[in-house]
């Protein structure tokens, strides 16, 4: 079929994790700044259907989309950089492709032919890419003009061979003027020699060309800037012009990557190579909001110390979206983030006996923080440590934001210590506990684990509260990923003791947001607000969480005294004096 879509394939060589996701996102950012609508596809060669059943130690966090798709965290990069809304089909896996082909074979769609990798698997890949590339991803619902496809892994991996072959065929299917291949490779700089080595990149490009794909752009990742001599060497040995070699060294923030690529002439090259007919932007004004953002990030001076009490802290990518949301809120607050990861298990009382060094270190880090994040997770390991962190924050008036499992930990802690229900627990941790404060949702747990949780964007109805003022809305939509919920049977007793549930679903039976009125900022949410945070539009719960220690910290004594006077006079919630009601403000803004 005729296809006027332009495709940019981003491949990687030498090692994984070289930065293909950020570079692919940067291509989109540059083109979008030129007025071109862009969509993105991430290909993961693993056989899993999706990322939903992955351990966070395998591939980092599981990113959730509006439609409930559980996908690779790189799709979070695309959504944040491009401010678009992707769909589950924007993530292709080997499992999805083979499942589709096998289902077709069972229906008899192949008319008795022998089903093989070539042509059936490769054709299915090409058809999937072409179909998804035309799906609108913006609020205006306009069809994209450019589709950026990132091929996960490294060239030469046996898992990715069928995808490489599919794109070898695809370049002829859509014609050369509609297809561009960008290869991202590492330029190591051994300390023993102190000079950049191009041999790994030469080998990687040679292997890619041997498989039938010739790179149009070679993006060289390095620790330090590399000189023109190295670029010329790569040009000579990799069969590209010097201007087609783009050098991207380690930068102070990822927001500089699109700016560096634009300065290297990417816009001009793509305009000519893909015949985009772009009116070349005026120097000095092009990508001005990104220049301002990068400059602001570099000039943050005031520091804020945040502790993240998690279960998967050995791999920082396990909390990638939470970290990004904190950074977005810090940028809006004008502060520099110092994030400390605390293993939840190390806060538990038993660790005082088993490993006193890590126990005291964890508590020292917690006590030095200006605020505490208790993020999501699964399983019983570390649950008691999260509960300990919630109790400490509540009793010491330390700002706390609980997310998903963090909400459940906060509810259990409050029941144990405010309602004296010492046996309170979650049925996930102890199915036979006496007081089941957190229970599973039967309709979301039919037996299989993959894709059976409460997933995707759903509405939450807010009561007048601090959170409703932060959002400046009565009805919000956030993304969910959970299988357990607060037991409705205990709601009345919890609220009578001071734990208010100010956000509920449309049925009014599922608790979405909990706060403690007597606390400056003790907020726990069942949804994942980090998924919808953007660099220029931070998530309201994160922004409110950061504003307390950053903006109000110098006046904390005065504010606490004012709060005590208000409570003595019976003038409402203890946190009402922190945030005044905003008038006509946009999402993510708050008056202080």
The best one-word shape is: globular
Number of helices: 20
CATH superfamily of the largest domain: P-loop containing nucleotide triphosphate hydrolases
**Could you name the CATH topology of the largest domain?**
Rossmann fold
Question: How far apart are the first and last residues' alpha carbons, in Å?
Answer: 57 Å
Low-confidence stretches: 554-563, 569-592
Q: Helix proportion of residues, in percent? A: 25-40%
Please give the CATH class of the largest domain. Alpha Beta
Let me know the average pLDDT: 87
The total count of strands amounts to: 21
Strand order in space, largest sheet: 11-10-12-13-21-20-19-16-17
Query: Which strand-content bin applies to the residues?
Result: 15-25%
| Biggest sheet features | 9 strands, mixed
Domain count: the total is 2
The appropriate CATH architecture of the largest domain is 3-Layer(aba) Sandwich
Helix/strand structural class: alpha/beta
Radius of gyration, taken over Cα atoms and rounded to an integer in Å: 26 Å
Describe this structure in words.
The chain has 592 residues and is an alpha/beta fold. It folds into two domains: 6-294, P-loop containing nucleotide triphosphate hydrolases (Rossmann fold, 3-Layer(aba) Sandwich), CATH 3.40.50; 300-569, 3-Layer(aba) Sandwich (Rossmann fold). Helix content is 37%, strand content 20%. The chain is built from 20 helices and 21 strands. It has a nine-stranded mixed beta sheet, with helices on both faces. A seven-stranded parallel beta sheet has the order 5-2-6-1-7-8-9, with helices on both faces. Strand 10, helix 12 (320-333) and strand 11 (335-343) form a beta-alpha-beta unit. The protein is globular, with a radius of gyration of 26 Å. Mean pLDDT is 87; it is low at 554-563 and 569-592.
